[in-house]
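Researcher: Batch entry, complex prediction.
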Amino acid sequence: MATAISAKSLTKEFGRREVLHGVDFEVEAGSVFGVIGPNGAGKTTTMRCLLDIIRPTSGTIRVLGTDPRAGGPELRRRIGYLPGELFLAGRVTGRTLLAHYEAISGPVPPGRVDQLAERLGLDLTRHIRKLSKGNKQKLGLVQAFMHQPELLVLDEPTSGLDPLVQQEFHAMVREAKHRGQTIFLSSHVLSEVQQTADTVAILRDGRIIAVESVNGLREGAVRRVRFTTSGIAAHDAVALLSGVPGVGHVEVLESDGTATLSATIGGDIQPLVRMLASLRLTDLVLEEPDLEEAVLTMYATPQEEAR
Amino acid sequence: MTALPLFRRAFFDTWRSTLGWALGLAAAIFLYLPLYPSIGGSAQMQDMIDALPPEMTKALNYDQIATGPGYTQATLFGLLGFLLMTIASVSWGAAAVGGDEESGQLELTLAHGVRRVQVVLERALALLLRVVLLAAVVCVLVWLLNGPAQLGIELGNLLGATVLFAGLALLSGTAALCVGAVSGRRTYGLAAGAAVAVLGYVFNAVGRQTKDVEWLLDVSPYHWAYGNSPVANGADWPAAGWLWAISAALVVLAAVALERRDVGA
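Model: Structure tokens for the complex:
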């Protein structure tokens, strides 16, 4: 598999303040790569380096096989970029502004702008300064996606979008991936990228502290289960549940006629489902695994143990 | 692909601003020039000017106000027109790169298929054309009023003065653009542009007072342009060349500076 982005020992100093302390990562072509980290971790700085908006102090970058410093406009036409702090102004309509960006990016297929605007529910005839933050963000997404670039670099793409539009954005990312485009996106929370990303990198204080596949995280992640059953004593239900491999933190929430239990389950859920099938259930909740918690347990605990 | 996309955006998207300044300049012209026959040309006015302290008439360039060309030079090209043109040019120059970077929009533009040098040059071209457009409006309106207001200006002198008028405003504008591009701050650009204009004006006013401080005239762009009263006596073409050449050099400096530094950092 070809590499769309590679960064080696990337450092960046602003004056005396070092923001990146040797960032290393590779993004496979045609994959969705998410960078997670708190504000100030260096996500935006890393992305700006990819587009030659700022230049790294040391280290090497290859974007679509080229050094961004040498790639020039030809390279940037093959990239779609959404800045983290999008600011659009001017007394022009969305359509006029997009026509301007179209003139300075790669070729845009006819009808593509309208199609994207319609999907995101964006009115292109309105003046930019009258658009809400969410609508400006939609405009930013359209300009990043419209020329179907080989690489999309999206800094906090879902910020300001309502949940329905976020879903549409996730669909756009999946479609782009199917078309073979590479997507590099960032977020301060994992839950935002776990739906679309194949791989996540955790960036903290200017360093990548973990790179994991989302599937791997999902397998290792802990889910929360809660169910209500009738016709069985609470302590019997506890005994059955505790016998399932991977189950922990069993709690009885209610034992008044019906029994309500909660627990956590890590790893394979098949044994749990088999056990539950033998009960007379009146309610069952099996939550989506919280990958954020998975990452935190993976990378926070060893450090604390080391202390 | 359309030619000069950045120039087109900078030039056409600001048409309201350009029109506003043009109207302001037109208002200044229609306010001042028709009054010449009743003010500047009258003997009473000359008596009043003579009664003023000579330092003051020199500072305001009112020593030549008794003739039509001198009146036009002092009131329009030297004062109100100069002020309006300078403000327009400096505000456009400071916004072109520094203001755009400060607001966060430059980052997105540079992420597209453009070169930084191209960004500076196309926006400088938009600044240049807007300044030239305003100067042309002034030139045409003055020429239209030349007969009715009994100004007696020669066309050649008017054209020469217009070139200097535009060059002087452009110098402040490109200084603002350059400092904005070097610093990434709109305010620094505004300060630099205003400093060139204001210091130039003050050095001229002070330098004309006594021989001791005459050297101030040599460093005053205002004096380079207007030292010999171009509306009355024709343009000092080498001075015009200097104004335009320094502006060009400032634009080149802006392009080099932007090319070499981090944006939005």
